[in-house]
Amino acid sequence: MVFDLRIIAREEIKDIPVYSAGLDIEDVKRKYGVERVIKLASNENPLGPSPLAVEAVRSALSDISLYPDGNCTELRRKLAGMLGVQLENLVFGNGTDEIIDFIFYAFFDPGDRAVMGDPTFSSYYLSGMTMGAEMVYVRLLDHQHEVEQMLKTVDRRTKGLFVGTPHNPTGTICSREELEMALDSLPPDVLLVWDEAYREYVEDPSYPESVPYLQRHPNLIVLRTFSKIYGLAGLRIGYGIADPGVVDLLERVRPPFNVNRLAQVAALAALDDAQHVENSRRVNSEGKRYLTDELLKLGMRPVSTQANFILFSYKDMIDGLPERLLEKGVIVRDGAQLGYPGYIRLTIGTPEQNSEVVSVIRDLIG
Ligand SMILES: *Cc1c(COP(=O)(O)O)cnc(C)c1O
Questions:
Q1: How far does residue 257's CA lie from ligand 1's centre (Å)?
Q2: Looking at residue 137, what DSSP letter applies?
Q3: Domains of the chain
């Protein structure tokens, strides 16, 4: 008889769905027999990484037999200088996803509550589930966080609020007033996790500069990443900016060598390439305008976005659009997997990719 090892697994983890990232480029080529595949599904930078980052990685390759610097010393120094914070204000992760894990490991006992939007970024609740946290979902209104409603749910068992701004999957932001309302009304023992993974793409002037609020609000944790505008998603590196006391707690659950050597040198070099960031921002901004206009002309309903992706409703126009796009070699994120059935989350690509997607959709609609 074979013993069922599920019996000894922790109850909390048994309901966690195994994350599905969707098909990759090779899968689609094989399955649909298409030669050219466009992947606009994971909000990656369509211009790729900075050439400076590529060169830095190349130069560091012969050192990969050595463990990385567990403290990210050089990167820490550089970022602290750029952000105007102390070295002790920063914590680095194997992607920002890992920092979300650290927050749950360090602060959440089973049954503690985490408040978040609905729909929201899956890492918040997947991480929460590993610790047996209880998720409190507050429905988005008009695709935006209802910060006031979220604050109203806070009770003695609440340990944190998780807010993406720009939010994933909608691309909407929270205003300065909402940030201030949250910080002013939250009890000091409730964390505000303010996830700015897409901040570099924001064009709306009402978007607040969050870091200065750390001075008076040690319960604020700001999250940022090198995966999006810096084009380093494959290397896995992100960081948190928080009060030194909070960083100290997160450091206790951080594995010693969590950020690899190549990620550290690439991130350092990427920070030096302001031109690449600027180009990425411009291509995104132009692509956003183009795609928004074209999708509207096609009868789709795009949500106004501040990020590098556009969420749009296709359900009145055509059935099963995500699958039909796959057959034509265009990979998008099906909203059905993101809490938005009848929608697609489309990453903004290069001008060529954008016009190709538009013409494929136009053909499908007929
Ligand atoms: C992409 C993304 C991140 C960053 O993830 P990494 O683990 O750094 O790649 C964080 N938050 C949101 C909402 C995201 O969409």
A1: 20
A2: E
A3: 21-48+275-365 (3.90.1150.10), 51-270 (3.40.640.10)
